Amino acid sequence: MPTRRRPNILITQADDQRFDAARALGTPQLVTPHLDRMTREGIACTRACIMGSTHGAVCAPSRAMLHTGMGLWRVPTALSGDWGIHPDDRVPDSRPPLLPQLFREAGYRTFATGKWHIGKEAFARSFSDGGKIFFGGMADHERTPVFDFDPAGLYPQERQYIGEKFSTDLFADQAVRFLESHSGNEPFYLYVGFTAPHDPRTPPPRFASLYPPGSIELPPNVLPEHPFDNGELRVRDELLCPFPRTRERIAREVADYYGMISHMDDAIGRIHAALAAAGHADDTIVVHLADHGLAVGQHGLLGKQNLYDHSTRVPLLLRGPGIPVGQRTDALCYLHDLFPTLLDLANLPTPPTNEARSLAPLIRGETSIHRETVFSAYKHEQRAVRDERFKLIEYFVAGSRRTQLFDIATDPWETRDLSADPAHGSTVARLRRTMSRWQDESHDPLKLRPTA
User: Fold this and answer.
1) Is there a single domain that holds both residue 214 and residue 181?
2) 128 shares a domain with 67
3) How far apart are CA 231 and CA 399, in angstroms?
């Protein structure tokens, strides 16, 4: 086979997969042989974070940031087609280029299946082919409404139909068919957007049977209820089971969550096997990531509408040409840092709209520090900043302010709030100043100011 100047790209994206939700990433009870293999054969970025969300559907802005390389306050906000962004002299066009669009314009064959969730117009610009395309946010996994690829890019509602099998298999089958049929010398960009492990968590029996609820080991930060009002305790996700949460009910939720992830892992294995059978295992950069995490009982929460690590940190795995084997990095990074990273690894230019920072120097071993701090926000109620050791979360609910400070190095489960400890007063003040500078630079509409 002729040598290509640029690598193929294969991306699998989960919906709601927590950063440690694989055996090799920190949950020994999970059965995830294919994600574990990716971890062994490539690099795992173990402190990848999302920047947050302006509304309860956290997946939509997360995916928009990933595909544009733009931060939360500049990324397109009306994700059903209005791609208006914050005024910026660097961005004269209100439609910033998207990652798959840039690969398409560089001569790649771009194909997508599964969940997209950032608009039909954006999809039409990005992909030259596709199948079983889901433009919504969530659906019954046995009755997912999908579209066939529309060359005109219109996707009229009357052409939508119900997929014939479980969403995870529906999308994996499309990816396998693409890999089996791809021919020619042009490189490809294959994007697979799973809707798993998002609720309704209904894993097929073969995978559900792996996790009897009575055998589930719950983490130490599981609580019956969140200890105070964080401004979003009655959002849809939080109403999926009654209050207070019992350990038995949370074990059931976690068991179903794990079953969904193992099913997805099995589908990823089928896609990777098809990639190898097609002769592309060595010339393809393979990526696995998620749009955000999920609480599933931790801190008394079920959803992702919060700024604890279980909801803001995500898996980010890469393997392939130019990627080191068997490495992990705990460097702080954003999920949308993948945008310039893949362009760098494919030797493609980064557009001026990009606000992210390429991980390529980190991957090449040229540095061990990527970002000194990362920030996250949820609507107008929550803001957070973390550095290598500490994490500060600020809450603004019903006219009052509440602060949490965690020493992540010694308290990774975020169970001991140090904000009222006089010994950590200077740390709180320092992180508040850091947060205020970020808010100014990023055009955060909340515009907080430090109190010390």
Assistant:
1) yes
2) yes
3) 11
